[in-house]
Amino acid sequence: MKKRILTGDRPTGKLHLGHYVGSLKNRVKLQDEYEEYILIADVQALTDNFNTPEKVRENVLEVAMDSLAVGIDPKKSNIFVQSLIPEVAELTVYYSNLVTVSRLQRNPTVKTEIAQKKALFGQDGGSVTYGFLGYPVSQAADITAFDADLVPVGEDQLPLIEQCKEIVRKFNSLYGETLKEPEALLGDIARLKGLDGNTKMGKSLGNAIYLGDSEEETFNKIRNAVTDPNKIRKDDPANPHVCMVGYYHSVFSKADYECICEECKAGKRGCVDCKKQLAQNINNELAPIREKRAYYENHKDEVKQILIEGTKNAREITKQTMEKVRKAMQIDYFNNK
Ligand code: ATP
Ligand code: MG
Predict the structure, then answer these.
(1) How far is the CA of 226 from the centre of ligand 1 (A)?
(2) Strand arrangement of the beta sheet that strand 4-9 belongs to
(3) CB under 6 Å to ligand 1: residues?
(4) Distances in Å between the alpha carbon of 21 and those of 80, 138, 189, 191, 260?
(5) Residue 178 in contact with residue 171, Cβ under 8 Å?
(6) What proportion of the chain, given as a percentage, has pLDDT over 70?
(7) Residue 305 to residue 95: CA distance in whole angstroms
(8) Distance from the CA of 210 to the center of ligand 2, in angstroms?
(9) What is the C-alpha separation between 109 and 159, in angstroms, rounded?
(10) Which phi-psi region, left, alpha or beta, contains residue 310 (left: φ > 0; alpha: ψ -120 to 50)?
């Protein structure tokens, strides 16, 4: 029997280069070897976007199209919608007894995200709902509902996988060996930085190059990226290590990276040409993805059908998990099997 992958994205915006290098490439690579379930986490997205449901709704299809565009094959992998799997909501309720509020408040991912919201939206961004504080519990339910072995994620998610493992251990020690501890799998670049120099490119941070951006949009974003402030003229020597264009070259122009750094340090590389070269390399990598995305944009009914199928398959698994969980927790009252 194949091992299982559970992974996913929040429908808070289109997917970007951070997703691509952090998680999507691994999902595509592993879809033959593993049985793969890709969650569109609309319930999780609503925890901090409950007042803009139209944004979440719109992006369910956008995220699905991004997944298909990078090469997720719906014949091999299942893309599904979280809110249509009631077993995940049920598990979340049971798991919420196994986690203390102070442990959630100490979760590094939750802490960072609250700080980011404060920075973006002022004090208002810091007001934390019960639902948002509890989203690591719901994520543990996502993973374990599928008995997942592996979870391909970006580095920001590691504390959430750790929290999931703690819940599994607690559940098993209380109710008997029932759930599996998952392992995280990081991508080549575990955390891609944002165009603004932020330590993470993020949908909700407004600092991303999206997979669906046009060639021109990509170039314009790179043109405005943060560069070495000490470089004023074309032939001034500069430091590629404090420049976001230099940083992205290290990811998307690997073969030329050393030479690019040498030229930059020696003042032999103008910023305009350097940005054009980077845009060219990123655009080359994105060209086949954009082509596939355009196909799905014109065939949205096909995308919806893929989600319906994927959700149906996903529910088969979660129903089985719930039988085990209810039995372990002694709440399988009228089940005579
Ligand atoms: P949001 O800002 O709404 O949280 P996001 O950009 O963080 O959006 P998610 O949907 O939360 O995207 O993350 C989906 C997956 O992509 C997760 O596994 C996450 O770790 C990974 N990921 C997101 N951003 C990056 C990044 N900059 N580098 C590497 N991996 C990333
Ligand atoms: Mg995120």
Answers:
(1) 21
(2) 77-81, 35-40, 4-9, 150-153, 183-186
(3) 9-10, 12, 18-19, 22-23, 153-154, 156-157, 191-192, 200-205
(4) 22, 25, 6, 8, 21
(5) yes
(6) 98
(7) 32
(8) 15
(9) 6
(10) alpha
Q: What six digits make up the tokens of 172?
A: 């098993």
pLDDT tens digits, 294-324: 999 999 999 999 999 999 999 999 999 999 9
Q: Which position has the token pair 């974003």?
A: 221
Contact 60, 84 (CB under 8 A): no
- Distance, CA 201 to ligand 2 centroid (Å)? 9
| Listed residue (189, 211, 202, 208) closest to 286, CA to CA | 211
Q: Is the whole model's pTM more than 0.90, yes or no?
A: yes
Between the CA atoms of 143, 147, 150 and 155, what dihedral angle is there, to the nearest 10 degrees?
A: 20
Task: Report the first-to-last Cα separation within the chain, whole angstroms.
Answer: 25
CA–centroid distance, residue 11 to ligand 1 (Å): 11
Residue 228: name the closest of 215, 238, 214, 218 by CA: 238
> Tens digit of pLDDT for each residue in 44-100?
999 999 999 999 999 999 999 999 999 999 999 999 999 999 999 999 999 999 999
Token digits of residue 102: 């102070």
Which ligand gives the minimal distance to the CA of 8?
1
